[in-house]
Amino acid sequence: MVRRAALEQEVRRRLARHGEEMLRQLPLTNESFGARADGIRLTADGSLQAMLTLRGAHGVESTVTLRAEPGGQVEEYARAEREPDVVAPIQTRDESDERLGIVTALARKHLPIGAAEDFLAMLRPALRLVRAGEGEPAVAQLGGLPTLPVNSWPVWEGHGPLGHVLSFDCAPIAAMLPELGLPADGRLAFFYFDDRYDDAESTVGSWDPASRPGFRVLHLHPELSTRANITDAATPVPPGLTPFPVVALAAVRTVTWPSHETPMAAAVWNRHGLAGPRPGVAAPPVEALYDDLWKLPGGGYNTHQIGGHPCPQQGPVEMEVEQLRRGLVGEPFDWNDPSVQSAASGWQLLLQVASEDDADMMWGDVGQLYYLVQDAQQPHDALFTWQCG
């Protein structure tokens, strides 16, 4: 965090210098003066920026943008005229072809040919989010402070403010993963009521519809992201809430597979005589396949991911969010009901967030958060579950 500390120090120095200069001019004017900083913003190319607004002794405002490069050097940044607010990454790592070849070989090694082809037909592309390296384009911000419209920080009434988990701009993500079907504009901000706020007195869970206000996905449209409608570029944290440390994330386009317990995968196993001896236990060929799949980099737990299939740590997360949906509208839920299983197959992973030491995030016992949607064009309608252990 050397570059952040350097940028903070330079911001404070500039604000103090402006105040001293204006005080020397006070006897010459009755106008008010002032200076403010709009917080520190993580940009798409991985640098940190802060903009200062300086009001002079005669009421004229000017702005200065400071930029800290990965090496820690702070300099004034001249923004090009008509430069867009969001710059899509120029390059993104893509392991899809290599991963597809490996998964295909494993499926054909362990499964009968028909089952292997049906399994491969269920594969979905995804973006695995990894810590951005020096100079690598950052496409998502884990933790830190979001950019929000005035007075819109999500709160669970009677419990407290939700923690900001992750944000990303839609345009670059939609371009890198068009199969997901995200809106092409705006920004998504994901929130969750972290039990640190009330010392684990309140728990958000798919089994409890009353806890629905404990998670939120905000789709911040461009018209709500102008400077006239935000408090700061980095919105101040509500009193009593400690923000997670910020981590810049880059994207790797990859291929994912469903958990062997999901309804869609279970239908394949049943169709090819590969059902396990009991629910939750895979038949030997299926178990051998998944044992090899979990050994692939990013193929198991502890993975941040946009789109694709979720990686559960317990049962199918699709069933859990369907349980929550039915609880919210008063519909019955039965894990063995075919109609429930069919409905669960309609859920699509929007975002998966693992526990992360660098961001001081621990979801239960090294667990993961899951936000799923039925229509990615409506990300604000996402439902949520989490698992650990």
Write up this protein.
The protein contains 8 helices and 17 strands. The longest helix has 24 residues, at 2-25. Strands 5, 6, 7, 10, 11, 12, 13, 14, 15, 16 and 17 form an 11-stranded mixed β-sheet that branches. It has a 4-stranded antiparallel β-sheet with strand order 1-2-3-4, with helices on one face. The chain has helices spanning 2-25, 96-110, 113-121, 170-176, 263-271, 284-293, 317-329, 338-344; strands spanning 34-42, 48-55, 61-68, 74-76, 93-94, 124-131, 140-142, 155-156, 160-161, 163-169, 187-192, 215-220, 247-256, 304-306, 348-354, 368-373, 383-387. It is α+β, with helices and mostly antiparallel strands and 389 residues long.
* Span of the ends, CA to CA: 31 Å
Helical residue percent band: 10-25%
Low-confidence stretches: 26-31, 79-90, 224-232
Beta content comes to 15-25%
Total beta-strand segments: 17
Question: Which structural category do the helix and sheet elements fall into?
Answer: alpha+beta
The largest β sheet comes out as:
11 strands, mixed
SSE string, helices as H and strands as E: HEEEEEHHEEEEEHEEEHHEHHEEE
Q: How many H/I helical runs?
A: 8
Question: What is the C-alpha radius of gyration, as a whole number of Å?
Answer: 24 Å
Mean pLDDT, rounded to whole units? 83
Please state the overall shape, judged from the principal axes of the Cα atoms. Answer: globular
